[in-house]
Amino acid sequence: MSEPFPQEELSRVALEAARAAWAGGMTVRRPDGSTVPIPLVAEPEVVPDAVLQAAAREARLVLSGAVKLARALLAEGDARDREALLGPFEGLEREAMQELFAAPCPAVFARVDWLLPAGGGPPRALELNATIPAMPGYADLAAHAWLRAAARARGRSPREAAALVAACGSHMENLRRALVGFYRTRGGAAARPSIALVARPGDAQVGELQRLAEHFRQMGHRADVLTPAECVPEAWEVLYRHVWAHNTDPAAPFARALREPGRHVLANPVNGLLEAKALFARLSECAEEPRLARAAGLDAEERAAAGRLPFTRRLDARLAAQVIAERERWVLKRSWDYGGKSVHLGAETAPAAWGEVVRAAAEDQRGGGFVAQERIFAARRPATRIAPGVVARGELYRDLSTYTGLLEDAPGGSVVRAAASPVVNILGGGGLAPLIPESVYHRL
Prior knowledge:
The chain is α+β, with helices and mostly antiparallel strands. It contains 15 helices and 19 strands.
């Protein structure tokens, strides 16, 4: 990207934008109850509109293919498939997941996480998130605050700044439309149905949830952020689930909606198996296994999308030998885990230690075992990280996460995280980068 802002001006713009975004809720809550602002990357991620549109189409195909395959594997797959998809879950979570394919829609809202290869080319999908596909509010806070601050720095009027924000689009509004669209498919007739946003007590992302609720209220809905104990599902027309079932007391009122998604407009039903890395691996296999693709009912576009996934397979003793021998090519991930806690990068692991890591992973069947995935090397780029009281220059990796869903009113848009580590985490020495469509950036 050619950068029209001198570095000093860019830092001033980002500092103003960061303060506005933090005030709006771009924060996380720590377990001790304190609130921590999420750092903002000063340099926006400017992405061609065609790339964003292609990512949205591809994300929809990845999701629809994964849902079809999951249904087929649960019905006709082998014991290893069923164990990988259902084995990691217990209690209320396992009980509720038995109803997933009886629910009206397994995934109203989902997110596909990609990396942009260092050598160029289209984004490559790393995994699917369908349980809590977070960050739509964060994405708006980062991009809109940056655009407003940059417009002011360039002498644009408030009306011109508002036009730039409108052209950028709103992830929160996309989510609202998706929820209302789902409500309509269920026979709902209210112009502005009530929406409960359900999260665990002390949820780390409560700032984003409160911002979402505020947006819903601004659009005419009754909306509130509630815990499972506070949410009486029958009192709300739409339920937006931002809580893991394993963090829900089975006796809480909200548990009724988890157990009976057919009775409630619940987005999403308990669907953790959809983001199992083992399912992603089996979807990758569909590109080379016509029988598996046919059994799942994948259409030609879904199978082609499976072929564009990074090569991903369930780890076993046979594959382990290849993964050990080709250390730099591979990443290991536990099938059921989140937050990057069980990710091992061959290129960042000493050769002597790598063999031990791979052999231990091949024997470890907790959480559905491990998968081995082709490593997508993302570029590290110069970046200015804005945190409270700190403006730090360095180099950061960036990813791209694209929202999608199964219904016609599928949410769209993307968010960009940046981090010092190739396992991208917004608090791991990184933050959020404003994602600006190229057409909007040129107008600015």
